[in-house]
Amino acid sequence: MKALGRKGFTYLVSASLILLVVLFSFLAVQEPKHIERQEMYETRIRTMSEFVNSVNRDLERASFISSFRTLMALEDDIGARGEFIADIDESFRETFMYGTIQGSSVPLMNDTSIIEYLERVNTIGNTMGIRVDLNVTSIDLYHTDPWHVEVSILTHVNISDMYGSVYWDYEEQTSAKLPIKNLRDPLYAVHTYNRLPNTIRRINASYLVSPGNDTSNLQEHIEGSFYLASPYAPSFLMRFEGNNSPSEHGIESIVNIALLSDQEISVDQNRVKVDYIYFNDLASDKICDVNGIPSESYFVIPSNRASLYEVTGLSYSASCP
Question: Binning pLDDT at 50, 70 and 90, where does residue 28 land?
Fold first, then answer.
């Protein structure tokens, strides 16, 4: 019995050792596979995370380009038709999203509409084994100040790998702040039959009339039809609709009637020369014959603009034709 017991114990130890060797051999083979799978999983997460970050960054850039092109396309359309837009917000959304105006393709928007951008993102994602679903849920257009237009885009983003094991699902708020400098004023496009487009520019000077009553900057401002921020005037976006209401983000220029005459457009020398007032022949109390401004400039402004144009220290007439 003792001998049998020793033999049994020896057999048990031997069997156990053999089992351990087999198990160790199995684990030695399986552990790298486990590590390999883990590394692959982590690599997939890192790759997708980088892809998500890239999409977020690129969406902002794409939104800026598409927004700027959209404003230019709408300007072109107004100039070609000679008519204002009924709803700038709706028109902007259509062109921004689909690259069309009233359903017709716009060459300027080729490869820059948001729909085309989303298609490209999907194509790139598919080559990487990533499923991409981007949906623009809202687009808001507004002014942050007289000289910039803000475009705010809310996008629902769903990105997952081909196995469905890793995914991101979130909303991304993207903003594009567009300077209106050098964009064309729709007001001039319509009222001058697109013969005398006027770009949004500001005079490079800290004052119009110097403390010594030098009016040279004011004369340059008048002749160049430069713009001033004005709470009495419509904003840049309002001008797309021909809306003449005052805005806290309003801008205005002085119409150079000599240039209008050169384009064989009839002029009125005695009418107020502030752009939206002049083109619409709106009634207003006037200031004219400002000392230091040549009479041939026909500088006639509303009486409430004396401070804006810095002529309060100059003599002028309120008895205007």
Answer: very low
